[in-house]
Specification:
With about 190 residues, this protein is α+β, with helices and mostly antiparallel strands. The protein is built from four helices and ten strands; from the N terminus they run βαββββαααβββββ. Helix 1 (about 20-40) packs across helix 3 (about 105-120). It starts with a strand and ends with a strand.
């Protein structure tokens, strides 16, 4: 097995009342869109913060929010597998393309997408941004199982709400909203 090589970077931005869940989802969307624009490979967001190609993990993001004296700062962390993957369920851009990607161009495309998302959010275009994210989220429309408080239920992922939570319509007709950390699996 060859070692994986990651493109790792962080971006810091001022934020309002956004949750780290939503910002992590925006980061995953930007990574996925950047991969699409740079390589032509169709990639998807797997809620809440993973990027996949044909169901295999190629990138992950995370976000943390710090608030002090009425101001907020978000740190978005990106990890994209550039070279080689030897683990089941994972891939790399090299494995998918057969050639090494230019890291600077990939970074430019991801940051360009992130910049547009920030511009849209700052200009109150929340519904449009959520529609864009939803359109690239492989989890939407999938049958899923949810484990909470020791109980396991099944349903279908139907949308992402304004806080970044995944809305699941359970088989019993009820709906639930998943937070980061809730156990979710595709069925």
């Amino acid at each position: 097995m060859r070692d994986a090589v990651l493109l790792r970077f962080s971006a810091v931005a001022a934020c309002g009342s956004e949750t780290s869940l939503l910002l992590g989802l925006i980061a995953a969307f930007s990574a996925s869109e950047g991969i699409r624009k740079d390589t032509g490979i169709i990639s998807w967001v797997r809620w809440p913060s993973v990027v996949t190609i044909e169901g295999k993990r190629v990138a992950a993001t995370s976000a943390s929010v710090t608030r002090a004296s009425g101001a907020g700062w978000a740190e978005l962390d990106f990890r994209i597998n550039i070279l080689h993957s030897g683990l089941a369920g994972f891939t790399s851009l090299y494995d998918e393309l057969g050639v090494e990607v230019d890291r600077r161009l990939l970074l430019d495309k991801i940051l360009e997408s992130l910049s547009w998302m920030h511009f849209g959010w700052s200009n109150e275009m929340h519904p449009q941004i959520l529609r864009r994210i939803t359109s690239m989220t492989e989890t939407i429309g999938s049958k899923v199982s949810v484990r909470r408080d020791g109980a396991k239920t099944a349903g279908s992922a139907v949308e992402i709400d304004a806080l970044g939570r995944l809305v699941v319509r359970l088989d019993d007709g009820n709906t639930t909203r998943l937070e980061a950390g809730d156990e979710l699996s595709h069925t």
